[in-house]
Amino acid sequence: MIMIRIPYLTLILALGFIACEDDEGPIAEISEESVSGEMISPETDMPCEPEPEPEPEPEPEPDPDPVSPIPELVKRDGTYETAPLEKENIVLTVLQNAANLSPEENLARMIEMGEEACSQDAKPDILLYHEFPLSGYIYGERQYKLTQSITVPGPETDALGELARSCDAYLIFGAYAKDELDWPGHILSLSTVIGRDGEIVAKVWKQRNIKRFYETFEISTTTVEAVRDRFRELYGAESEFPIIRTEFGNLAVSSVQLDPLIFSALAVRGAEIILRTSTLFFASDVAYTALSNNVYSAMANITDASQYGGQSIIVSPMGETMAQVESRLTEGFASAMIPIRAFRENRKIPQLTTEFTQDLFDQYVPEIPLNHLDLPADELPENGEEMKSLFDQISRWLNP
After folding, report:
1. Cis link prior to 153 (omega < 30° from 0)?
2. Angle at the Cα of 111 from the Cα atoms of 109 and 113, rounded to 5 degrees
3. pTM score, two decimals?
4. Domain annotation covers residue 391
5. 177 and 323 both lie in a single domain
6. Which residues on neighbouring strands pair with residue 315, listed in sequence order?
7. Is 377 within a domain?
8. Hey, CA dihedral for 266, 297, 211, 189, is it positive or negative?
9. Closest alpha carbon to 111 in 162, 175, 153
10. Contact 386/217 with Cβ under 8 angstroms?
11. Helix (H, G, I), strand (E, B), or coil: what is residue 265?
12. Burial class (CB within 10 angstroms; exposed 0-12, middle 13-18, buried 19+) of 375
């Protein structure tokens, strides 16, 4: 018998070539066997082409517009955050001035009336002026309104801060305001809250303007609703319905009218006293706000001969008038004592039917979309007529 010996390396190369070419015959299937007394191991290196390395998966691109998480705005157990109270009862005073003179004279009149109110036996803990005590309501073009708008802080808040400090009271007033750094060209309707030390505690934006209330124009000031997304970027969602937790109670400030959802939003955030600055108003609106949300509510109003002028008012949680300036045309002030400690005891936020009515409101489409004034300065409406024209163009109801 003739033995043919195949060189070991030749056999290995041949087997490796077959295994690499045959998809059905992986190298691992070659069992150890003897070829002329020599062992071939499946672990032996084969001259195969190496498989290409898999390409790494690309990193996911970051979200170009990440949505910031909304902080907890309402507690789930019906309670709300507070600051410790300093006293059992507090005194709230509403001040009603004419605001039909120059801004300098109006400021002097505000201080004069405030000093008179603070000299009363029942000294105020809170002084509430109306929406535009420095200027009155201004009709006209945007550029003119901007010349009459204040900056906050500014000389007006410095002077009123001195009044607050000397009276040892919180002071709230509304004004047309401008902010050329963050909001060039915009006319803001701000309510400024000054603390007992004379320093600014809060600058509260008007949440929204009344809409489709007038036949020929719309209010052209910039509100939270009109620039909501950018407002949140700058100030946070908690600044939309801010609660000022003080030693005299939880204060909320707004110049909104005829919008019960706004005041319910403030109430569920923990408002105990809703302080409203106004240019003309409905007394029934103030009473309803207090009664439906279980809060004290007050409205300081400008003097005017119409049935909506003057008569600044303070209302109890039962909707009853506690104090009022009787005249529509005459300047004056009115004060009421609020038993804040007794009121707060065991109190919860109001009961709202949001769960029951959710399906209905999910289908409701507001006529004017959010962010409708998030525009370049040179594209902002110049007046109320142009504002109405903008609403007609972007209306979801007129242009379904």
Report:
1. yes
2. 70
3. 0.83
4. no
5. yes
6. 297, 321
7. no
8. negative
9. 162
10. no
11. helix
12. middle
- Does residue 57 surpass a pLDDT of 80? no
Residue 191's DSSP bridge partners are 174, 204
Q: What is the DSSP letter of 4?
A: -
Reduce the DSSP state of residue 58 to 3 states and report it: coil
pLDDT in tens, 240-284: 999 999 999 999 999 999 999 999 999 999 999 999 999 999 999
Residues 33, 35, 37, 39, Cα dihedral to 10°: -50
302, two tokens: 């400008």
Distance set, CA 367 to CA 75, 192, 360, 372, 395 (Å): 31, 30, 16, 11, 5
Assess whether pLDDT exceeds 60 at residue 354: yes
Query: Cα-flanking dihedrals φ and ψ of residue 289, to 5°?
Result: -55, -45
Q: Of 25 and 313, which is predicted with more confidence?
A: 313
Q: How many angstroms separate the CA atoms of 357 and 283, rounded?
A: 27
Assigned domain for 398 exists: no
> What is the C-alpha R_g of the chain?
36
Q: Are residues 28 and 143 in the same domain?
A: no
